[in-house]
Amino acid sequence: MARKQKPIKSELAWSTPDKIVVRGKDLANEILGHLNLGDMAFLMILGRVPDKNESKLFNAMAVTLVEHGITPSAIATRMTYLGAPESPQAAVAAGLLGLGSVFVGSMEGVAKMLSENADIESMKRVPGLGHPIHKPVDPRSVRLFEIARETGFYGKYCRRIEEIGKQKKLVVNATGAIGALACELGIDWRAVRGIGVMARAIGLVGHILEEAKQPMALELWERAEDEASEQQRPKR
């Protein structure tokens, strides 16, 4: 007996020879020149164009995640570009693959934790708290919460993550703030890491361009190789 086929349907976009429609809006006439990149991302995720306050907050969240220096993701991108300069997309992808529970992607855990009202006491490690550099405060979180107040989005999820931070005596880092703000905006926690992926991809393109002009990947490799091999070399 043949399996009954399910209909294949997407509500994201469709096109004809002379028209492209994204989330119900004409790309050429209603989106291009009207929406910035952050607003377009908001439209794709939530299915509607943000209002002025939502746009300000969401764009601030995304911009926060674009760049944070020579991080593991940036190093992975630079190293991949060193080996395959003909494939910048592979270099960006290499950097994005490391956005998980420790770096950037932790805001997904925050959003899930807050939206499901998880029991914090049973968690060995609470996502969104602590930072090796930014302590006792993370300036990014401070500013994001300021913007949330300015736009009317500082609510129960923001208060909850700050309460948890005080309880654990740890700084609420940027991903903690963004996870809470995503909940305030009504974003499904399963899409929250995607905000970081989108934003960090932009930063990694910048790292590729700098690597092409001012290379450091070869130096990082050679120095790591020298130090890692130091103990194996015979003493003179």
Question: How does this structure look, described?
Answer:
This protein has 236 residues and is mainly alpha-helical. The chain has two domains: 10-47, no CATH class; 51-222. The protein is built from eleven helices and three strands, in the order βββααααααααααα. It has helices at residues 27-31, 37-46, 52-64, 72-83, 88-96, 106-115, 139-151, 156-168, 174-184, 189-213, 217-229, and strands at 13-16, 19-22, 25-26. A three-stranded antiparallel β-sheet has the order 1-2-3. α2 crosses α3 (52-64) and α4 (72-83) runs antiparallel to α5. It is globular. The termini are far apart. The model has no long low-confidence stretch (mean pLDDT 94).
> What is the end-to-end distance?
77 Å
Number of strands: 3
Largest sheet: 3 strands, antiparallel
CA gyration radius, whole angstroms: 21 Å
Judged by helices, strands and strand pairing, the structural class is mainly alpha
What pattern of helices and strands is seen along the backbone? Answer: EEEHHHHHHHHHHH
What is the approximate shape?
globular
- Rounded mean pLDDT is 94
**Runs with pLDDT <50, length 5+?**
none
